[in-house]
Design brief:
Length: about 375
């Protein structure tokens, strides 16, 4: 059972529904526990399972007997939590029903020590804690009251198949026109939630400098992401981004797409994908762009340098717009280089980030099989 009692919507909340189809293909029977009416609950339903739902996190604790009865009825032996606040329920269930295995994935990257009495109790019942990158594992080792052997690095995985190009030239050009792209323009995209940590403001400054250092380059920026809180974005920040676009004179040079459910197809319309996130715990957007075979510029901070090897893309300092402008200019001027980097990125995604391998490693842990290449 995957437990995610969150009313937000980001990579953490999307994770259970992302892997459920592959869990089923590999012979497991997944269940879910989510907040009633949440996007998590809706995503689990869309993935093919009807989750057990609770009105609130507090209600879930008060109805622990109901959850235990559900676990017994469905012979559930593994719990997997994705928010640290959900460990209260997970640890309580594991305490009340000996034999339950409890797993926790730290999707966010812990930022402060968690070694007080409560956290020693809760994490003491965790069978395995998964870090989603080496960068976060280093922080986990320092912050959590667990021995090193119970903290394992397990990179996230994606289903690579949707990212294989499908559009013919006419459909691709039609999509580019929808994004306000002229035929001769290099399309520079930035997908992700519109929140300060994702670096959109830095990217806009980089685009303004790109215009200055490469006046001969025809380009257009495509900012992909929801514009409302319901879609996971910071509405005040979105307003500031629009104001900055106007101040920089980029109104005709940048398209705000709003939320799009067709990201794999949007990648086909892009030439360069930028991921300027600061201190990213993993960098799922980087992997998705790699799967799509795109030339990528990523921030040189957090886990992104682990994902984006030198032959797969370029790294730029997360606080230096000039570095971003120079990287975008280099890739924008060289279509052959973009193609080579994109092909190398796709091959790395196939080797390292396929959801099938991720789920095999995960279920080996569920089953207590030691020795799979999960990381140390």
């Amino acid at each position: 059972m995957h437990i995610c009692l969150s009313d937000g919507w980001g990579g953490l909340e999307m994770y259970p529904a992302r892997i459920i189809p592959e869990l089923q293909r590999q012979g497991w029977e997944p269940h879910g526990l989510a907040l009633a009416g949440s996007r998590v609950a809706a995503s689990l339903s869309a993935a093919g399972i009807e989750p057990l739902t609770m009105a609130s996190r507090g209600r879930a604790l008060l109805q622990v007997g109901r959850v235990l009865a559900y676990l017994k009825h469905h012979a559930v032996g593994v719990l997997h939590c994705h928010k640290s606040s959900d460990l209260r329920l997970g640890a309580l269930l594991a305490s009340l029903r000996p034999g339950l295995k409890l797993f926790f994935t730290d999707h966010m990257g812990v930022t402060r020590p968690k070694k007080d009495l409560y956290h020693r109790w809760a994490y003491g019942r965790v069978t395995r804690l998964f870090a989603i990158s080496e960068a976060t594992r280093a922080r986990n080792l320092a912050a959590f009251p667990l021995p090193a052997e119970r903290i394992r690095r397990l990179y996230l995985g994606v289903d690579l198949s949707p990212y294989v190009p499908r559009l013919d030239e006419a459909a691709r050009e039609s999509l580019r026109r929808e994004l306000v792209l002229a035929p001769d323009q290099v399309a520079i995209g930035l997908p992700g939630r519109l929140t300060p940590g994702k670096g959109q403001a830095l990217w806009l400054e980089g685009l303004a400098r790109l215009r200055a250092i490469a006046p001969d380059l025809a380009w257009h920026g495509v900012l992909i992401g929801g514009l409302t809180a319901r879609e996971g974005s910071d509405e005040a920040y979105v307003g500031r981004l629009r104001e900055r676009v106007a101040e920089l004179g980029l109104e005709k040079d940048v398209t705000f797409t709003g939320f799009r459910s067709d990201l794999p197809r949007l990648f086909e319309a892009l030439d360069i994908v930028c991921v300027p996130s600061r201190n990213e715990a993993f960098g799922l957007t980087v992997v998705e762009a790699m799967a799509a075979g795109k030339a990528i510029v990523g921030a040189n901070s957090g886990a992104i340098p682990e994902l984006l090897e030198a032959d797969c893309g370029r790294l730029a300092a997360s606080e230096e717009p000039q570095a971003w402008a120079e990287a975008m200019a280099e890739l924008g001027r060289d279509a052959v280089l973009r193609r080579r980097l994109g092909q190398a990125a796709r091959r790395r995604a196939e080797r390292q980030f396929d959801v099938r391998a991720h789920v095999r490693a995960l279920t080996d842990e569920y089953a207590g099989i030691v020795g799979h290449a999960v990381g140390t």
